[in-house]
Amino acid sequence: MTFKSAVDTIVANLAHYALFPPEQGRITLPLGHRKRATVGRTVDGFGKPLPALLGALEAVGVATVAKPQQAGYATTIAPTAAFAAEVGSRGISSPDFERRTDLPAIVLTRKDQWGRREHVPIPQTDDAASKAAQVRKFNERLALADVAYVGNQPTDTFDRTLVRRFTLPPGARSPRLAYSGRLFGGFWQQMRRTERRHIRVEGHRIGELDYGQMFPRLAYAKVGAVPPEGSPYDLPGTEEFTDEQRRAVKSGFNAFLFKATTMRKWHPDIEQGLPTGWTVGRFKQAMLRKHPLLAPVLNCGIGYELMYRESEILCRVLERTLLVDCAVLPIHDAVLSPITRTRAIAEIMMEEAERVAGARIKAALKPSV
């Protein structure tokens, strides 16, 4: 049965891929012999026979298999053109796929000494049970919601299941659900903003409401202070930065919140995004000139804690919208709401931010694209 389950699961994923190609391009399928592996969302790993099975699927023209070229990366698979054409000719559609209902509502992971993400058993506590029950309630509501997509891209609107993902930061000694905790899943999270405008909720166009400068404002709430006026990312010396360089400033700012030790060099993506000469030291000096009150929380690794607060705020927002019988679609620190309800939902978002973080963080409607 294990072998048949492996074939059924992989072929079904390949067929779904053929109809609804993911933006990331291929399906990740680690070949390690650990008990858990990732096939889309978390499912049981198939163990040692898996490489032989993939070889067989490749041999009969069902899948293409790409093995990693360096350590730390996983094998990926994709349907062949012939298999995709066969799936298309059969008239298969989203309702034909059986979706697992026994997947975990919450997941806890950490990185091992080689930087590979591994699963950690969920603690058997009342808090964990409550968090899992909350996510299941969200999923039950979303399954019944009037959500549609009227664009031209192949989109599986039945893909609505959320999972709350917690991460243990480096050095964490106990498996607590107190770090990260963002909600992942749902077809809308994988979409470009230009495609999200074609989503309809309750028959209405949607508006995207998000919190402005969430992490810096949560950091100020952490130290019991009020941030200065204007964008927290407008650091001294960045006045002439391009939009791309400003995005790198935001990434650099967050890096100082997540790094738990002294930071000596940038991640390559940040280094490439900033102008020449903007070293870690120069950037930190500019940050402290703009935000001297944040000095106690830089390089302390509080980013995971701040992300947890962000996720708690969003979960409370979803709870509130359930009470007013309004479906909203979460995207980390934002929600997609029926355009007719954005004013009421924005007020709920600001109220819940104040309850969780002690700061009234503004939620605003993003310009339509």
Automatic annotation (TrEMBL):
<protein>
    <recommendedName>
        <fullName>DNA-directed DNA polymerase family A palm domain-containing protein</fullName>
    </recommendedName>
</protein>
